[in-house]
Amino acid sequence: MYASTLLVSFLGASTVIAAPTWPTLNWDAAKPDGVDTVSEYFNMLAKKVESGKWLSSAPICDISKAQMAQAPSPLVAPTPGLSLKHVAIGRGTQNYTCDTTNATAAPVAVGAVATLFNASCVASTYPDLLQMLPKLALQFTLTPQENTRMGPTNLIISGHHFFTNNTTPFFNLDTAQYQIGEAGCAKDSQTDAPADAPKGKNGEKAVPWLRLKTRTGSTGNLQEVYRIETAGGSAPATCKGMPAAFEVQYAAQYVLPIFAILMK
Fold first, then answer.
1. 115 FRET partner, CA 20 to 30 A, in 137, 145, 244, 256?
2. Rounded to two decimals, what is the model's pTM?
């Protein structure tokens, strides 16, 4: 009883009982496996709610229990002495420009924009659900309704991700409900997403996994940010047929490790 109630709170499992009416899926624009992904999510929820009925107490939301996924070629591990502070699912766009006079030129990445949804408790209690959330998020079109929650879940906004210039990703995790901190970052390292990583709605490959280090002036003791479990977001190989500026939809898990320094 307690465990199933907690799952409802975390992930909107009440929608398993009644068909969800929010948000509206753009089925015409969805990938061929879009329906399967959403169905898989709800089936997984239903099984967890059913098994949770037999637990004597609810799982504890302990972010320290969360484990970060590893790519085939792993990123550099978090700096010793840091602890996980927050995990979020980012849903937005990777942004690019093209030289329209040169069809063979490669698109140039000029940043990204994403809304971040708090998945910390999911990370600590239901890691299998966490892993599929970026793929699930990509099945839903970006609409103003996402100013409330992510897709068919009850994950609420914990912040926003954007670039202050072409090379400085920024994370604003100070909201009315959460005061986690703000951080401008610099890329430390990257690795290719797994070969079977979810593709975008038009078959775009998943963008690389990243390790970022925060810049001077960051708040909340934020030290490092990892972008993992990416879905979609990659540009085409060349600018042939592309406009001067374009966006590619993506989703990712931000184990914002925001790793925070352990306070003694």
1. 244
2. 0.84
